[in-house]
Automatic annotation (TrEMBL):
GO molecular function terms attached to this record: DNA binding
Record's GO cellular component terms: DNA ligase IV complex; DNA-dependent protein kinase-DNA ligase 4 complex
Name of the protein this chain belongs to: DNA repair protein XRCC4
Organism listed in the record: Eurypyga helias (Sunbittern)
GO biological process, alphabetically ordered: double-strand break repair via nonhomologous end joining; immunoglobulin V(D)J recombination; response to X-ray
Taxonomic lineage of the native organism: Eukaryota, Metazoa, Chordata, Craniata, Vertebrata
CDD domains in the record: HD_XRCC4_N
InterPro entries: DNA_repair_prot_XRCC4 (IPR010585), XRCC4-like_N_sf (IPR038051), XRCC4_N (IPR053961), XRCC4_N_sf (IPR009089)
Length: 89
């Protein structure tokens, strides 16, 4: 099982700090759990393998490429700093 925790500053509220935790069993492509917290409240959810495939198809993107982009955006925050923006709504 893998798990990461990253600090993010959403473009929708750049002064705010959120913490994004992503956890997975095998790899992101098989689905993952996600928790977002502002330090006072936390929101959790899961993304299934089927939802990942559906989103990749909707974006007309190769599924493996889509999973690689998910990894960059959600897990590799240090390496991808400044390349991905988050908006909280």
């Amino acid at each position: 099982m893998g798990k990461t925790l990253n600090r993010i500053h959403p473009v929708s509220d750049p002064e705010a700090t959120y913490f994004l935790q992503v956890s997975w069993e095998q790899d992101l492509g098989t689905g993952f759990g996600i928790t977002l917290s502002d330090g006072q409240c936390a929101w959790t959810g899961t993304v299934s393998e089927a939802e990942i495939s559906r989103e990749a198809a909707d974006m007309e993107m190769d599924r493996q490429k889509y999973v690689e982009e998910l990894k960059k955006a959600l897990i590799a925050a240090e390496e991808s700093a400044g390349k991905y923006n988050f908006a909280i709504s």
